[in-house]
Amino acid sequence: MQIDELTEPERVLWEAFPRGEPVDLSGGDQDFDSTNAWGPDRTVRAEVISSLLLGAQDNEPGHVAAVRLTGARITGTLNLGHAHVNVPLALTACQLTDAPHLYWAQLRSVHFIRCRLPGLVASGARVDGHLWLEGSHIYGGVWLDSCRITGILNLTGAHLSHPTGDAPLLADRLIVDNNVYCDQGFTVEGEVRLPGAQVGGQLIFRGARLRNPKGQALYASRLSVAANVFCDGGFSAEGEIRLRGARIGGYLSLVGATLSRPGRTALNCDDMSIETDIYCSDGFRADGVVSMSGAQIGGLLSLRGGRMNNPSGVALSLQRVQAEEVLLRPADPIAGAVDMRYARIKLLRDDPLSWAPKYTLDGLTYDTIDPPLTAGQRLKWLERDGDGYVPQPYERLSETYRTLGHDAERRTVLLAKQRRRRSTQPIALRVWGYVQDWTVGYGYRPFLAGAWLVALLAFGSVIFQHHPQITEPGHNTQFNPFLYTLDLLLPVGSLGQEGEFAPAGVYQWISDALVAAGFVLGLTVAAGATRVLSRD
């Protein structure tokens, strides 16, 4: 390109380039909607910029050459595809007529700050420095798939949309060695794609607003972040936040976030591995399913002060979760079911005032539960299990009371397990269950057997005040109504009373009834003792 072919603003930029001096064509007017026309005095051709970046003008000794342009209207396509650019590019408050093409280029720092452009194509590009898109309006999609950035990716305050496409930000397999900023007014109409992306620092969506109600607002399966992920500070999303299989080296904050995808999955953290904590707390709200099935959480999962709403199905899935601690104390009772099947939690902390209407608890294990509550209160929690009778949750709760040294509470839980099991049995076994329950409390209420024995002894001692006839005349055995009744009740052995006397009439019926009662009482005591000893 010849210098005599340049317009006046292009000549100013050409002469400023060798020393890296900034060129401001705005005249103080950086309003894209201004009624003042961006005329020839503010227009620069994209080919002039690309010529400078590709070495058409040498740098001045002692200076770092750079294109630093403010307030310009850039016409044509800034095409740097497959190019090697060794100088920085910084455009501020510029308006581009065409999407820059940076695909598979090797670049120094690239800044589009508060610019308006119809897209950015940087697939496979390598940026040795920062890629800065702060405050820009990009309405044709940003392609950063397979891009490598050694510095920071900054999208703070950017507005992205792609009316004719699906993903305003397409960053599959993006690699950023430092932080990624998508915060403070970052707004996207459509899908943000980060599957397989790798972030060497923090990923920050603080205060961002994502909207894609028909699909994924953030699709980041298999995302890898070395430090923390922030989706808080007023973060909101219409559409699914999908972090399935993500690996996070710090913690995930969704404090105060608002997620909306009614009737479907609002937050998907299935199979996530996180080094420390997850905070869905302090104003967090999800209209839709919050799913963390199979997640491995090295520290705390906090749902304190959150709200979850999916009344037609599962609102919270913790199936197969492994966590050091789960704080399940939302601001309001969870509207929907809570699935905790086969979760492994060291410390489970909940609150009866915020229990969900329905749980699935089969296979749930925990070392400690806080507060332990009384057995009667905790049984109300188990009764909300929508799978009906499942023995394992009762066994787990009874072991917790055993560990705490509350043996009476443990036996109460095991008795409740047998009673709930009885409701699932055939009629014959159900009747036998009632007999065991009334007589010995399935072996967990042994004092009932003593009470029945005392009552039957008292009854027989009164009834048999007039002794029956002696079986064989000539015997001198002294009749004792108490011992006679006891002899009738004992299913084995003899006290020498039953064989010596022969009741008649109604006394015969009463003695037979006492023998039957003793036999049934003996069987139930034996069955209960066997059950208790087998557990011990």
Spell out the blueprint of helices and strands.
Blueprint: H1 8-16, E1 23-24, E2 43-45, H2 46-53, E3 67-70, E4 73-75, E5 89-92, E6 95-96, E7 106-107, E8 110-113, E9 116-117, E10 120-121, E11 126-127, E12 131-132, E13 137-138, E14 142-143, E15 148-149, E16 153-154, E17 159-161, E18 169-170, E19 175-176, E20 180-181, E21 187-189, E22 192-193, E23 198-199, E24 203-204, E25 209-219, E26 224-225, E27 229-230, E28 236-242, E29 247-248, E30 252-253, E31 258-268, E32 273-274, E33 278-279, E34 285-291, E35 296-302, E36 307-317, E37 322-328, E38 335-339, E39 344-350, E40 358-360, E41 365-370, H3 375-382, H4 391-404, H5 407-422, H6 427-440, H7 447-463, E42 469-470, H8 481-489, E43 501-502, H9 506-535
Parallel strand pairs: 1-3, 2-4, 3-5, 4-6, 5-8, 7-11, 8-12, 9-13, 10-14, 11-15, 12-16, 13-17, 14-18, 15-19, 16-20, 17-21, 18-22, 19-23, 20-24, 21-25, 22-25, 23-26, 24-27, 25-28, 26-29, 27-30, 28-31, 29-32, 30-33, 31-34, 32-35, 33-35, 34-36, 35-37, 36-38, 37-39, 38-40, 39-41
Antiparallel strand pairs: 42-43
Helix pairs in contact: 3-4, 4-5, 5-6, 6-9, 7-8, 7-9
- Give the helix/strand class: alpha/beta
Q: What is the average of the pLDDT values? A: 87
Strand content: 25-35%
Q: What's the alpha carbon Rg, rounded to whole Å?
A: 39 Å
Shape verdict: rod-shaped
Spatial gap, N to C terminus = 92 Å
Count every beta strand, where a strand is a DSSP E run of 2 or more residues. 43
Largest beta-sheet characterization: 23 strands, parallel
**Poorly predicted runs:** none
Domain count:
3
Helical residue percent? 10-25%
Number of helices: 9
